[in-house]
Amino acid sequence: MGRRxxxxxxxxxxxxxxxxxxxxxxxxxxxxxxxxxxxxxRRVTLQGQTLDNGQHILVGAxxxxxxxxxxxxxxxxxxxxxxxEVRYAKGFAFRPLWLPAPLGLLAxxxxxxxxxxxxxxxxxxxxxxxxxxxxxMPEDMTVGALLEAHGQAGFxxxxxxxxxCVSALNTPVHRASAKAFLTVLxxxxxxxxxxxxxxxxxxxxxxxxxxxxxxxxxxxxGEVRVRSAIGDLREMKDFDAVIVAVGPHxxxxxxxxxxxxxxxxxxxxxxxxxxxxVRLPFPMLGLAGGVVQWVFDRGALLGxxxxxxxxxxxxxxxxxMTLEELAERCHGELAAAIPGLATPLWSRAIAxxxxxxxxSPGAPRPPVVWNGVFLAGDYTDPLYPPTLEAAVxxxxxxxxxxxxxxRHEARNFEAVS
Length: 417
Ligand SMILES: Cc1cc2nc3c(=O)[nH]c(=O)nc-3n(C[C@H](O)[C@H](O)[C@H](O)COP(=O)(O)OP(=O)(O)OC[C@H]3O[C@@H](n4cnc5c(N)ncnc54)[C@H](O)[C@@H]3O)c2cc1C
Fold this sequence. Notes:
The protein is of the alpha+beta class. The protein folds into three domains: 5-42 and 201-261 and 361-416, FAD/NAD(P)-binding domain (3-Layer(bba) Sandwich); 84-196, no CATH class; 264-357, Polyamine Oxidase, Chain A, domain 2 (Alpha-Beta Complex), CATH 3.90.660. It contains 13 helices and 18 strands. The protein has a six-stranded mixed beta sheet with strand order 10-2-1-11-18-17. Strands 13-14-15-12-16 form a five-stranded antiparallel beta sheet. It is globular, with a radius of gyration of 22 Å. Residues 8-14, 31-34, 39-41, 53-54, 56-57, 229-230, 245-247, 250, 253-254, 267, 269, 352, 355-356, 377-378, 386-389, 391 line the site of flavin-adenine dinucleotide.
C-alpha cells in the first residue's frame, strides 16, 4: 500500500504508530518539535549532566511495548527484570512469590513483613472479592473509597495499595479511578506469572525504544524529522492520513475544537550524585513518611556509579519547594535511611509538572478518529492509566485504524473507477 502517512509527535505513542505502519510497508513521516524522540520519556542534558527527564518503571504486563522493542531490535539486556518488591528502607516488605497467579500474590501477602496479621488476611479477602467481580468497578468510584469500603485503609493501604496506586496511576488515592486501578491489578497481580515483575531501564529512555524505532522507520523508507513543530494541520494536506500523537496539553494548538478538559499530575525526579562507592542494597527501595516515595540506584542499573534517583509522583506539598530545597530534602531523607551517607557532589531536580493527566473517575477518553484525524497518546486509552504501555497501545490502535481507513478508501476508489 503506497500511501503516505504523517505522525505528529515522536513520543512512545507516535513512534509505536510509526513502527506499526512501517512494518506494513506504509511510508511514514514523523514530525517532532523537540531535538530527539521520546517526549515525556526521553534523555535530557541538564547543566552538563546527561539524565532521563524522569526515572521510569515498567511492569511485566507491558506486552505491547516489549513486542515493539523486540521488533525494532532492542536487546532484552536493556531492562533489568526483578520480581515485584515493595521493599522499604525501614519496615514493610512485600514480594509476590514465583508461583502461578494468584498463589504468588497470596503467599506474598501472607509473608509480608511489617503489617499486622489481621490486615494481611483482610488484604487477601479484598483480593478475593476483587477477583470474584472480575476486577471491575463502577466508573465513578475512587481508589480511596474502594479501600475504605474494604477495610484496606490501614498499614496495608499506606504501604502497599497507595504506593501501587500512585506508581501506576500517578494520582493520589482520593482522586484516582478505582476502575483504572483494578485494570492494572488484573493485568499485573492477577495476571500470568511475570506480569507483575518490575522492569527497570538499563539504557536511557530515548535509547529504550524511540531512537531504535526511528532507525527502524528509516530502514523502511520512512523518516523522523526532529525540531519540526507542526503549527497547523493544514500543513499536512499532502498526506493521505495524519496521526496526532502529541501530549494532551499540546492538543489545543493543533485541534482547537477538540474540547478535552484535563487536570494534570506532576512527577519530580531528583538525581543526587554521591561518591561512586555509594550503593543501595536493592536497585529500587521505598521510603515512607517523607516526600521521597522511591529511590533508584542508577549505578546498579545504568553504570552511573554513586548516582541515586529519588522519585516523587503525583500532587503534594513538595510542589511548594524550590528545586534546590527539594534536593536538600531528598538528601536528608536518604541520609536518615542510609547510615553514613555524605553530602552529594551535585544534584539536579527535574519537575515534570504535567507528567500525566489525572487518572480520575470520568476523565474524558477521546475516540480514535476525530474529524478525520487519528489520535494517539497515553491519555486516549479507554481503560489503562496514562503510562508507556497506554501510549504504545494507542499508537498501534491508531495505525490499525489508518490502515483500515486507507483500505476502505482504496476499495471505494476501485468501485467508482
Ligand atoms: C517524570 C515522568 C515519569 C514517568 N514515569 C512513568 C513510569 O514509571 N512508567 C510509565 O509507564 N509511565 C511513566 N510516565 C508516563 C509516560 O512517560 C507517558 O505516559 C508517555 O511517555 C506518554 O507518551 P505519549 O507518546 O503519549 O506522549 P508524549 O511523550 O508527550 O509525546 C508527545 C510528543 O509530541 C511532540 N509534540 C507536541 N506538539 C507537537 C507539534 N505541534 N509538532 C510536533 N511535535 C509535537 C512532543 O515534543 C512529544 O515528543 C512518566 C512520565 C513522566 C513525565
